[in-house]
Predict the structure.
Amino acid sequence: MKRLLVATGNPGKVREFARALIPEGIEVLGLDSLKEAVAEPEETGLTFEANAMLKAEYYSLHTDKPALADDSGLEVDALDKAPGVKSARYGGPGLDDDGRNRAVLEAISDIADPARRSARFRCVLALAAAGRTIATFDGVVEGRLIEEPRGPNGFGYDPLFFHEPSGCTFGELDPAAKQAVSHRGQAIRALLEALHSGDSRLADLG
Ligand code: IMP
C-alpha cells in the first residue's frame, strides 16, 4: 500500500498521520485530493469502532485508494465516559478546542481529587476499500485531567490531559513524544505492523 486517503478533515489528525506514515514510504492523500468535495458523513455510531468504519467505508466509495478513517475521543470517568464518541461536539455547536476544554473543566469543577479526574484517550482506525472495511486497529492511553490547560502542542483536549509516565500534558509533549505513547500512535503502529508482516487482509491494497 503506497498511497492512502486519510479520510479526516481534522488538521491535528492529518499532521499526526503524515508524521507517522510518510517516513514509511506511504503517500498520504487528504480529502482535498478527491475530485470533488464530498459532504461529511453523519457520525451515527455508538462506538468509536462503528464511527471509524462508517467514515472509512463512506470515503472509500469516493476514491480508488484505500481509505483510512480515525474515530477517537476522550473518556472522563467522572462524566460516565463522556464526551466519548461526541468529543468533537462536546458543549454544543460553535465551540472551538478552547471552548470544549473549558466545558469539560466546568463539568468536573467540583472534583478536586486528582485520582477522581481520571480519563483516557481512545482511537480506532478503520481501513476500507470499495465500501468495505478490511481491518481495524486501536489504541488507548490513560491519564487524568488537570485544572488549567497547559502546553501549546497537539490539538483538542491535549492541554488538559496529564500523562503520568511523561510527567506532563500531551499539550506539553513534542509531536514525536506524543506519538510514542498516544492512542493514535499505538493504533498507527498496529496498522504498520499489519502492513509489514504481510497481513493477508491488506494484501490486495496495492
Ligand atoms: P472525531 O473526529 O469524531 O473522531 O473527533 C475526535 C475528537 O476527539 C477531536 O476533535 C478531539 O476533540 C478529540 N481527540 C481525539 N484525539 C485527540 C488527541 O490526540 N488529542 C486531543 N484530543 C483528541
